[in-house]
Write a structure and sequence with these properties.
CATH class of the largest domain: Mainly Beta
CATH superfamily of the largest domain: Galactose-binding domain-like
Strand content: 25-35%
Shape: elongated
Largest sheet: 7 strands, antiparallel
CATH topology of the largest domain: Jelly Rolls
Distance between the termini: 80 Å
Bound molecules: calcium ion
Structural class: alpha+beta
Low-confidence stretches: none
Number of helices: 1
Number of strands: 7
CATH architecture of the largest domain: Sandwich
Radius of gyration: 21 Å
């Protein structure tokens, strides 16, 4: 009887040690990942996407406050120029992120007049479309223009934002806990010259 208990005790200890190892590895992964994930710096390709200054093939990078790591909704999907209806192909902010933002970094200063957003309502439930957000552009830390959007219902929305010689566009979105807008789901950002 005692031998049986000892065997069971050892098994329990081994299981606990294995669990602790897996837990430590998971915590390390979370702690070691970048606090503000960013897409790769692709070289600009000649002649790519002339009507969309945000496309990654122009060398644009997208930096985000967070993304939904476990569902793999990486920010590159918001600047890949694809009008896909694939549910994977969107940027989704992290479930714990209470103040999500996405920033596009242009490889050299650009001029533009408006920003087009493809919200999740274009593909999924209408209530996933973000209603409230702020667009701003700037050169480094210098803010050049800003526009506040309230009560948006358009799943494909175009917002005027006149920016000259700016190296970044920033979008700060207001999540609404307890609704379909508890995280940001954004399929595409287009920057219109
Ligand atoms: Ca996309």
């Amino acid at each position: 009887m005692r031998r049986l208990e000892t065997g069971a005790g050892r098994l329990a200890k081994l299981a606990l040690a294995a669990y602790a190892t897996v837990l430590a590895a998971a915590v390390a992964v979370v702690l070691l990942r970048s606090p503000h994930p960013i897409t790769p710096a692709y070289e600009a390709t000649a002649g790519c996407s002339p009507r969309d200054l945000a496309h990654y093939c122009r060398g644009v990078r997208a930096r985000v406050s967070s993304y939904h790591v476990f569902a793999n909704h990486q920010p590159i999907y918001a600047i890949d120029g694809r009008g896909s209806r694939d549910l994977l192909e969107k940027w989704v902010s992290g479930p714990q992120d209470r103040a999500p933002w996405i920033e596009l970094l242009f490889p050299e200063p650009v001029d533009f007049s408006s920003v087009r957003l493809t919200h999740a309502g274009q593909v999924e439930r209408a209530e996933y479309t973000m209603r409230s957000y702020r667009l701003s552009c700037g050169d480094g830390d210098e803010l050049r223009a800003t526009s506040r959007v309230e009560g948006n219902e358009a799943s494909r929305a175009e917002h005027a934002l006149s920016c000259l010689q700016v190296d970044r566009l920033r979008i700060e979105l207001d999540i609404e806990p307890g609704t379909g807008r508890d995280v940001v789901r954004l399929y595409e950002i287009e920057v219109v010259p």
